[in-house]
Structure formats: C-alpha cells, structure tokens
Amino acid sequence: MARNEEKANSMLNRWVMMKQEERVGSLRKRPAIASECAKLSEAERWRHQLLREISQKVGEIQNPALGEHRIRDLNDDINRLIREKYHWERRIVDLGGANYARHSQSFFRSTRKRLTQRHSRARREFSTKRGTRRSAPAATSTLVRRATWLA
Q1: Of 110, 119, 105, 106, nearest to 147 (Cα)?
Q2: H helices within the chain, ranges in order?
C-alpha cells in the first residue's frame, strides 16, 4: 500500500483539491463595491446572484398575508438590490460585457404606462361618483405618487 505522502501527491488527489478550492472560491461573499471586481465572468455571476435575490423577494412580497412592516422591509431590500444590480451592470459594461441596463429601462417604461393607465381609470371612476373629496379611493394617492416618481 502507498504511503500517505504518495497519496497526497497523486494526480487524482491534486485534481480533487483544485476542484474544492474552486468551489470554495465561488462561495465567497459578493464584494460591497462593484469596482473591486476585475473579471467579467465574476461580475456577471454577481449580477445573476442579485437577480435571483430580487426575484425571491418579489415572490415574498406578493404574499397577501404579510403585514405592513414586513412589506416595507421587503420593498426597501428590493430597492437596495436593484440599485446594487445597476452598479454591477455598469461594471460589466466597463469590463467590456453586454449592456443589460438597456433592457431594464423598457421594463420600467411599460410599468409606468400601466400605472398611469390605472391612475386615469381610477380618476374617471372617481369623477363619475358624486360625493366628497374624502370618498376617493385610497389607491389613487399612491398611484399618483408612483406615476410621478416613474415619470
């Protein structure tokens, strides 16, 4: 039987150790500042990780059983992640990669269009009703703020 020194130096053992080091390297934390990343492949990997986190939190926030505080916390987290995703997209472009920011603008443009349509529909419904100003639907004021923010 081979000695331990010989086992450690075998090609199979070296290959297994190399694979473990690669895996451990992929488990490290995402850099706080996107400009610290020097490789395009790593920057795209961190962007994909952000996309997964955003989609997970968007799925959570759609739960109707959540309380208002939890919804606000999730919304803050989503906004922070979107802001961070933007930084990574800029870094990817700096490193010579694809411009992903171009595609996200169309998403926000279509969202703004839907919000303004919903807002105008709510205004029409309100103008056809008779009553006081306080009888306006509560969603109208939030839609006005959202549509103004997206404009």
Answers
A1: 119
A2: 4-8, 11-26, 40-61, 68-94, 101-128, 138-150
